[in-house]
Design brief:
Number of helices of chain B: 15
Distance between the termini of chain A: 21 Å
Low-confidence stretches of chain A: none
Strand content of chain B: 15-25%
Largest sheet of chain B: 4 strands, mixed
Number of domains of chain A: 1
Structural class of chain B: alpha+beta
Number of strands of chain B: 16
Number of helices of chain A: 4
Strand content of chain A: 15-25%
Number of strands of chain A: 5
Oligomer: heterodimer
Low-confidence stretches of chain B: 444-472
Shape of chain B: globular
Radius of gyration of chain A: 15 Å
Distance between the termini of chain B: 30 Å
Strand order of the largest sheet of chain A: 2-1-3-5-4
Strand order of the largest sheet of chain B: 8-7-6-11
CATH topology of chain A: Rossmann fold
CATH superfamily of chain A: HybD-like
């Protein structure tokens, strides 16, 4: 089972893009999709059993919604919030495996207190949802080709 | 020539703080201060909002302990509605608060503090964190993760989500407990209890001597917390008790709504965090401590079998209540154990699945106080409303504020013990930070004195010239 994690605070404008993508993703029979305010160390319990994981987060300075591969990387310990790379590292250390992981960075512009996305954030939303669906299809295609082989 | 040492920011606490240590001509510690440099303002911008919004609004004060604010706010709302909430609603609020105790204490113990004392105070800071803890004891780390996740899951299954669940409301709670969630929580209690008992055994073995437990200093103080009318450990209702260093009751049983008759708040120009104190003894002599050690020190017993045995062992051989800062960690483990045992009692209650969970009423009082125990200590919400239930004035006293005098005292004690003749090493500095972390301060919650403090900004140029900007 794949895992999609939308990260962000829906009360801070475009920071809520990740949860919004998850909310509008529609049915995902091959994946579990969850929304979190921030990454916390307990998510390792979900990551340890996932085949693949896609983190969806708002990003400053991006020009489009891009999916890129990420790998475990040691941070400066863990508190109540961690980066995707540090969470993968933590999962690998504690449970001796971490899933293959990708990060979808979605451009955001306004991160002030607001319950809605900025016009730029709204504009980026369809592209971000399509990127997640393409990522999910890529897993299905890979499984299909493995079965054919 | 005097010398100042600054530690900024203090790491592994919720929010940001700064510590200043002032040395004299000989390089010994003259004074030390714990500064809180964040500013929030919730008391001010709650004005004009309705009572019904307050649980959800004040939950946003903190992403770590929103449940505590939701419950205190709902209790203040109960008082303004002048209702007695249904028994099941109280049981469910208790259950959520106990889940909050488990998840918050597990976070503090396993993620934030254990690396200090299980890996050693003088180890390399690069490895003295929870990642280093995994390398040293992966099984303990795994169990710590599962324990915290259990506490969060309890909150999630009651409130619908782990952070900011809009569930407790004035008059009760939004929805009853589903049978499947009840069964899930019951089925996971044994593992949680086993993890706590194993960790407690490990902890007692590692810190068997009083000397090791004195590492962060020890000093006498008063302690405050809720107890049942019979003197048992309490986290949701009951009466406020204040005891002295020997455990003798100074205030045996105060109606929590009358907190203002004994607690006053003082301010200092070098921090945004106010200084609540026991008013009859004045400021700063009226220092008391709250939170895990405060609660463990004010109660007679837990009222549950295993926690009571452990509490008896904790107090064995002591002529007075423990004043050791380090014992906050011990108390945290005792409280997690007591919380699990109390969950067992709550979940076995025959009315726990009742659908009657909310009392409906209008505005019947213009003032209400909600007091309960957050994991970090006594939490007070005090509202004044108009006839339509619109907030005219709000006052919050949070646990980190109650402990402010004690945290400053702890910093001074540790600094004096470990900094001599100007000799300072990372291990020493981390002990000072450890003294703060033992109280598990939540600065996000505790800074709300907008407009009460002058702002001061020091600009120090390369040649040593200092420019100070002040906002009166």
């Amino acid at each position: 089972m794949d895992l999609v994690i939308g990260i962000g605070n829906p009360l801070r404008g475009d920071d809520g893009i990740g949860p919004r993508v998850v909310a509008e993703l529609g049915p995902t029979p091959t994946a579990e999709a969850i929304a979190v305010l921030q990454l916390t160390p307990e998510l390792a319990l979900r990551l340890k059993t996932a085949d693949r994981v896609l983190f969806v987060d708002a990003a400053v300075g991006e020009t489009g919604a891009f999916v890129r591969r990420i790998r475990p990387a040691c941070g400066h310990g863990l508190g109540h919030a961690v980066s995707p790379e540090a969470l993968l590292d933590w999962t690998e250390r504690v449970f001796e495996r971490a899933p293959d992981a990708w990060l979808l960075a979605v451009p955001g512009r306004l991160f002030d207190v607001a319950e809605r996305l900025s016009p730029e954030g709204e504009k980026a939303l369809p592209e971000a949802i399509e990127a997640v669906q393409a990522w999910l299809r890529s897993a299905a295609a890979a499984e299909s080709s493995e079965e054919d082989a | 020539m005097q010398r100042e040492i600054h530690i900024e920011p203090v790491t592994r606490i919720e929010g940001h703080g700064k510590i200043s240590v002032f040395l004299d001509e000989k390089g010994d510690v003259r004074d030390a201060q714990f500064h809180v440099t964040e500013l929030r303002g919730f008391e001010k911008f709650c004005e004009g909002r309705t009572l019904w919004e307050m649980p959800g609004l004040t939950a946003r004060i903190c992403g770590i302990c929103p449940v505590s604010h939701i419950l205190a706010s709902a209790k203040a709302g109960d008082a303004i509605l002048a209702v007695r909430i249904p028994r099941t609603a109280e049981l469910l609020r208790r259950l959520m608060n106990l889940g909050q105790f488990v998840q918050s204490h597990a976070l503090s113990f396993f993620y934030l503090s254990a690396p200090d004392f299980l890996l050693g105070w003088d180890t390399d800071p690069a490895t003295r964190n929870v990642v280093g803890l995994v390398a040293a004891n992966p099984d303990l780390a795994r169990k710590g993760i599962r324990l915290r996740a259990f506490g969060q899951e309890v909150i999630d299954r009651l409130g619908g989500k782990r952070i900011h669940p809009a569930w407790a409301v004035p008059g009760g709670v939004h929805q009853p407990l589903a049978a499947e969630h009840h069964a899930w929580i019951v089925s996971h209690l044994p593992e949680a209890k086993a993890t706590i008992l194993e960790t407690l055994a490990l902890y007692k073995k590692a810190f068997a001597s009083a000397e090791l437990r004195n590492v962060l200093g020890a000093f006498d103080s008063m302690y405050m917390g809720l107890v049942t009318p019979g003197g048992l450990w309490e986290h949701y209702a009951g009466v406020l008790r204040l005891v002295d260093a020997k455990g003798k009751a100074i205030v045996p049983a105060l109606d929590p709504s009358q907190y203002a008759t004994i607690i006053k708040e003082a301010s200092e120009p070098w921090t945004y965090l106010k200084f609540p104190h026991y008013e009859p003894m004045g400021y700063p002599n009226g220092m008391y401590r709250v939170g895990p050690l405060g609660r463990v020190n004010v109660c007679d017993r837990f009222g549950t079998p295993i926690a009571d045995q452990e509490l008896e062992e904790f107090r064995a051989g002591e002529k007075k209540r423990s004043g050791r800062v380090f014992d906050y960690h011990y108390a945290r483990l005792l409280e997690m154990l007591g919380a699990i045992e109390q969950m067992e009692v709550v979940l076995a209650d025959e009315s726990i699945l009742s659908p009657h969970v909310r009392a409906e009423a209008g505005i019947n009082e213009l003032e209400g106080v909600g007091v309960h125990e957050a994991p970090r200590g006594t939490l007070i919400h005090h509202y004044h409303v108009d006839k339509n239930g619109v907030i005219e004035k709000a006052n919050f006293i949070v646990s980190t504020g109650h402990n402010n005098l004690a945290m400053n005292r702890a910093v001074r004690e540790i600094a004096k013990a470990y900094i001599k003749k100007g000799k300072v090493t990372e291990g020493i500095l981390n002990r000072i930070e450890g003294g703060i972390r033992a109280y598990d301060p939540c600065l996000s919650c505790s800074v709300h004195a907008v407009g009460h403090m002058p702002l001061r900004l020091d600009i120090i140029e390369a040649d040593g010239r200092r420019t100070t900007l002040c906002q009166e």
